[in-house]
Structures are given as C-alpha cells and as structure tokens.
C-alpha cells in the first residue's frame, strides 16, 4: 500500500459514522481487552489531510502557512491535491513532485563587489534551496491567479500549468538561467592562493 493510497483510505474513513457502525465499534470495543477499550476513539476532522510522511508535502504546507495556521494550510493543500488527482487521475504527490522538480532553479544571481562595481554572479544552489525556491515560486504564481477562486484551487491549477509549461514560475526559472548563462564569465575562484 503506497503512502497516498493510505492517505486516500484515511480520507474516506473520515465520513461521519452511521449509528449502526457506531454500535458495532462500541460492541467490538467492549469485547476487546480492557487496556484497548479504554482508549478514546477520535476521528480526524473532515477535509483536513491526514498526517503526511512526504517531506515535500510538509514543505509545501509550511510555505503556504500564514500566522501559524497550519490546519488552514493543510486544508488548502488538500484541495489542491484533490484537484490534481481529478485532473490527472494519477498520484497527486508524485505529480506535485514532478512540478516542483520542473521549476527548480540551478543557480541564483548574487551581487559581488569588485572595486566600486557590483557584478551579478551566478551561484549554484543546494538541493534544499532549489526545492524551497521552486515551492515559493509556485505559491507566488498561484496567488497572482484569479482571486475569485479558493487558494487550493489556484495552487492546483498552477501545478497543472507548470506541467503544461504555461506558468509564471517556469518563465522565472528560464529568465534566471538565461541571466546565469550571460554572466557566467563573472564566476571566479574564491581563493586562488595556495595556503601553506
């Protein structure tokens, strides 16, 4: 069972319990050993993602989150993942990972002072920096979309636009790569001296 199918089955199990099902679960709980019967049964809230194992999904939630409202951010990402699953009929977390990988920049432009001038120099990014930059760009491009749509729908549509190469995040990545290519002559070794 994959992580997403487990999450989907958890979401399906979030439906309100019928009285008949509630009676059978309480009957099963009374016939179980005393240590198990004392545990309270607490169902997760509807519409909120179950606890997620994927670090990419957690990174997305943390970048969507504002003012510490993580449940709201989870609900927004849950709506986006549902839209992605409906549109593509594929595992939404793998589609999300593919979109983030497509937007990830390899470089960032850094201003380096040489004498009185500040020269733009391309600097390579680590894998974590690339992922975070891509997530932020996708979220910013989604916020610039139609304001009438809910945030989750906008993020889902933006991810689909990234996959179709029709996103502002992709254009931003291409622009950074072009300027890195133009300014590649500004890259120099940091320390040319041999240390003794």
Automatic annotation (TrEMBL):
Keyword DNA-binding tagged: no
Keyword terms of this UniProt record: Ribonucleoprotein, Ribosomal protein
Domain Small ribosomal subunit protein uS7 per the UniProt entry, residue ranges: 53-184
Example of a GO biological process term: translation
Source species, domain of life: Eukaryota
Similarity comment: Belongs to the universal ribosomal protein uS7 family.
Protein name as catalogued: Small ribosomal subunit protein uS7 domain-containing protein
Species whose genome carries this gene: Chytriomyces confervae
């Amino acid at each position: 069972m994959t992580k997403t199918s487990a999450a989907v089955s958890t979401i399906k199990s979030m439906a309100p319990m019928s009285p008949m099902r509630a009676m059978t679960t309480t009957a099963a709980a009374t016939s179980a050993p005393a240590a198990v019967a004392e545990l309270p049964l607490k169902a997760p809230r509807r519409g909120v993602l179950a606890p997620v194992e994927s670090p990419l999904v957690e990174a997305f939630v943390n970048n969507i989150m504002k003012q510490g409202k993580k449940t709201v951010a989870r609900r927004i990402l849950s709506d986006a993942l549902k839209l992605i699953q409906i549109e593509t009929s594929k595992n939404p977390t793998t589609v999300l990972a593919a979109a983030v990988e497509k937007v990830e920049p390899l470089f960032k432009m850094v201003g380096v002072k040489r004498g009185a001038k500040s020269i733009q120099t391309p600097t390579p990014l680590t894998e974590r920096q690339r992922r975070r930059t891509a997530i932020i760009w996708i979220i910013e491009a989604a916020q610039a979309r139609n304001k009438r749509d809910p945030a989750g729908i906008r993020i889902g549509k933006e991810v689909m636009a990234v996959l179709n190469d029709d996103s502002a995040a992709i254009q931003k990545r291409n622009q950074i790569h072009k300027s890195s290519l133009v300014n590649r002559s500004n890259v120099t070794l940091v320390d040319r001296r041999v240390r003794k």
